[in-house]
Amino acid sequence: MKTAVIAVLGGLLTLAGIALLVLPGPGFVLVAAGLAVLATRFSWAKKPLDYAKDKAQEGVQEVAKSPWRAAGAVLAALVLVGLGVLTLAGVDLPFLNAFTAVVLILSGLFLVGTVVFARRQEKQEQARAHRPAGPRGTAGAHRAAPRGD
Questions:
Q1: Which pLDDT belongs to residue 90?
Q2: Nearest of 95, 117, 114 to residue 106 by alpha carbon
Q3: CB-based burial of residue 48 (10 Å sphere; 0-12 exposed, 13-18 middle, 19+ buried)?
Q4: Does the pLDDT of residue 141 top 60, yes or no?
Q5: Contact by Cβ (8 Å): 35, 48
Q6: Rounded to an integer, what distance in angstroms lies between the CA atom of residue 51 and that of residue 37?
Q7: Is the model more confident about 77 or about 143?
Q8: How far apart (Å, rounded) are the C-alpha atoms in residues 99 and 54?
Q9: Are the CB atoms for 62 and 69 separated by under 8 Å?
C-alpha cells in the first residue's frame, strides 16, 4: 500500500512538473520533487533525479541573479493565480475547469515561493561575499570571546 501511495504521489508531482516545463512555473523543481519521492522506493528514479536537481538549481540561480527574471516570474505567477481565482469565481474561461483552476493557483503560489527562496539565497550569498575577513590565522572565521565563569 505504501509503495502504491508513493508511486501515485511521485508520479503526480513529476507529471505536474513536466506540464510546467511548457507552462509558466517551476517545472524542474516539481519534477525533482516527484522523482525524489519516487526514489525513496524505486532505484531507477535516482539517476533522473540527479539531472532534475541540477536543472532545478540552475533555474533557481538564474532567477536569483536577475531581478528582471524574478519580476517576470512573479508576474507570471500572479497571472496563474488570477486565472485560477477567476475560474473558481465562475468566470467562464476557455480550457479551464475547477481542477485546472486549483492547479494554476497552486503553481502560481509555488512559483512565488521559489522566487522568494531564490532571491533570499542570493542576498545571503552577497552578504557573505561582502563580509570582512576575520583576524589573521582564523581562516576568516569570527570567533566569540571565551566566557569567563
A1: 92
A2: 114
A3: middle
A4: no
A5: yes
A6: 15
A7: 77
A8: 30
A9: yes
Q: What percentage of the chain exceeds 90 in pLDDT?
A: 5
When pLDDT is cut at 50, 70 and 90, the band that residue 123 belongs to is confident
Q: Which three cell numbers stand for residue 149?
A: 565563569
Amino acid identity for residue 136 in this structure: R
SS3 assignment, position 90: coil
Amino acid of residue 137: G
3-state secondary structure of 34: helix
| SS3 of residue 115 by DSSP | helix
For residue 114, give the nearest of 52, 51, 63 by alpha carbon. Answer: 63
The one-letter code for the residue type at 122 is E
Quick one: pLDDT at residue 133?
Answer: 63
C-alpha cell at 104: 494554476
- Cell numbers given for 41: 522506493
C-alpha cell at 146: 571565551
Of 16 and 92, the one with more pLDDT: 92
At 21, list the grid cell.
516545463
The more confidently predicted of residues 63 and 92 is 92
Helix axes 98-130, 67-88, angle to 10 degrees: 160
